[in-house]
Structures are given as C-alpha cells and as structure tokens.
Fold:
Amino acid sequence: MDIKIPYNEDLRPDTGLYNAKLGIWLFLASEVMLFGGLFSSYILLRAGASVWPPIGLDGQSVAHLLEETIGLATFNTVALITSSVTMVMSWVSLKMKDISKFKMYMWITISCAIIFLIVKYFEYSHKIHEGFIPAHDTYMALYFTMTGLHVLHIIGGLFVLVYFVMPDGIKMWDDEPIRFTNRIEVFGLYWHFVDLVWIFLFPVLYLLN
Amino acid sequence: MVSDNISKQVIKYWKIFALLLFCTVLTVLAVYVDFDVEGSIAGGIFIGLTIAVFKGYLVAYNFMHLNDEKPMVYWIILVTLVFFLILLFIPVIWESTLVGKY
Structure:
C-alpha cells in the first residue's frame, strides 16, 4: 500500500507552511544557538585577553599570518556569496520549469563549494605548517573550532547538492515537480544560512584583530 | 504575469549579489582605515560588524525570502533571536559580575 506523506506539497492550515519548511526553520534555529555558543565564547575569551590574537607559549602570535590570509578569506567570501545567488537561481529555474538551467546553477553552486574547501585546505595546512595548531592559543582554538564546524556544514551540504543533480535525486522532478521544488527551497535555506554564518566569521576571525 | 514577476525577482537577486560583493570590498577596506577611537580598534570593529549585519540582512531578507513569509517563520526567528542575544550577553554579564571582586 502506497501511503502519501501529508503536507509535503500542500500548506498545513495551522502553520501555513509545508512540513519540510517548518522543519528546516526549526533546525536553523538550533543551528543559530550552536554557532551562538561559539560566538559567545569568542566574546568572553577576547574580552579577557590583554593582546588579541594572544601570544602562545612559543612567544609568537598568529597576527602576521592572518594579514597574509585576508586575500584567501576574501576570495572564499566571494565564492560563498556566488554559491548563494546560484542556489536561489536554481530554485527560480525550477519555478520557471527550466530543468537544464537548474542543473547549470546547481553545478556552479557545487563548484563554488569545492573551491571554498580547496582554499580552506591550503589555509589550514599553511597555519599548521607554521606551528599554529589549535593548542597554540585561545584564538587558534576558536579559529579551528568555528571554521572547522562551518567547513563540516559545507561538506554536508555538498553531499546533498550532488545528490540533487544525480539521477536518483533529480528523478523526483518527473513525478512530483512541486515536491522537488520545495526540496530545493528547503535546502537553499540551509545553504544561505551557511553563507550567513561565514559573513560573520569572516570579519570576526580575519579582519577585526 | 507570473513570468514577469519571476523576471523581476531574478534581476533583484543579481542586484543583491552585486551589493553583497560591494559590501565585502568595503569590509576589507575598513580594516586599513584608522578610525582612531581612543587608541583602540573599537571603531573598526563597529564598522566591520555593522557591514556584516547589513550583509546578513540582505541574504536573509532576499535569498531566504523573509520579505514574504508566514507568521510562523517570523515567530521562530523572533524566539531564536531572543535566546541568541541572551547567549551573546552571557559573557558581558559574567565580566561585569567579576569586576572588583578579584
């Protein structure tokens, strides 16, 4: 017997939303608190430090390396902002029933996410190579925790993005186009949130030191 | 009519994209400006965070469609923001209760 899950296309009369949309907003609320805890730790540690970024036990501060990596971090900001606009454009393409444009925008989004991860890899290896590991000082501990958690969100999102352009993911478009469009909208909300977090991480960790 | 609306939306998304890029450049340039607030970088922090808040608003309002959502979504965001602000102010409360005690 084929049981249809209710309210994945129609709006629930009590919430005014389809279920997945309510679910993603509640999930994003929990994500705000997750990153909020880290931002709160950042304020506490920074307010208590006499010098920022602090000087480690080896007598060195990561400040000079941060200036070198501003260019890379700016490039990554542009990559994520681009991925955000291409994500929303892929949803618009589905609204216009243009599946080839949808695929094109999704592949651009995937490329931007991969570029972001590659740049991050070089950034991490450069810092680790210079001895600036999470145990070096409180700034480095926060830097790796906050950007690492953000990178995990990008990796998770990348898997979902790839799934949506693979035959298994995209086949829903043929049978249930509205449900598929809703899926893309819901995933888009997650992706924009990941972009939003980076918009704050970028100045806080790279610029305002 | 529907396709006209979508075309207008598409133009708006690309304009927001351009504005976000412009704000990113401004944020980076602000680092190199000396705002000279009592010898600290408080001015730079204020400007940097203000631009970040504006960029966040642009993404949430336009890309996340908060310009046209159901009341349930606004309620979820409002409750989250209240708890988020409490979370951010915990360090401030912590610091203020320690002043003069040690």
